[in-house]
Structure formats: structure tokens, C-alpha cells
Fold this protein.
Amino acid sequence: MYYFTPASDMFETADSIVIFIELAGVKKEDINVEINGCRIEITGIKRRGERADEYNFQRMERTFGFFKRNFELPKTSDRNSISASFSEGLLEIIIPKKNRNDGFRVACIKITD
């Protein structure tokens, strides 16, 4: 199956990782966000208009069909607190970072000669 890859931005703040994905023309109910192991996977479908089959296109530059994006989740991410919102064709995913006392284990490694 063919998937197109929507444009995205990913950046880090002091307390989270933020992902923006451009999904103009996609309906919220056609988007799926899942955590799969150490990855976050965004899939869905961008549909053509209801009457698109009636048109005799002279040029078609917009992409339609199934889309998929995968992002590695950093070890510092709090996977239980990930949130997503969708507004005006832009999907925003916020991945909070764990607090230092929230699951980090410090291991001492003995240095030998």
C-alpha cells in the first residue's frame, strides 16, 4: 500500500517535545495517533471531494490517499501523558518529558584498571 508523508516540524522545549504535522483538508476522525513500542505513529487518510471523479483535471498537485509518519520517542518522554490536538489543518502532539525523579534510575559504574 502506498502512503504519502505529510510535512512536519519537531522541536524541544524545556519540558516537552512538540510535533506539528500539516494535514490540510483531513478530517479529525480520519487521523489515528498510536504509541507502538518506542515510536509514535500517525496514520490516516486524506480524501478527495465527493464529486472529484466527475472532474476532468488539467493539473493535480495536491496529495490524496493514506498517510503515515513515525517518530522515535526519546527515553525521557512521559508516554502516559502525551496529548494531541487538531485545529485548522494542523495536528499538534505534545510529548511531556519525565521529571528527573520520575523514573530515571542512576546506575553507578565501577571503573577498573
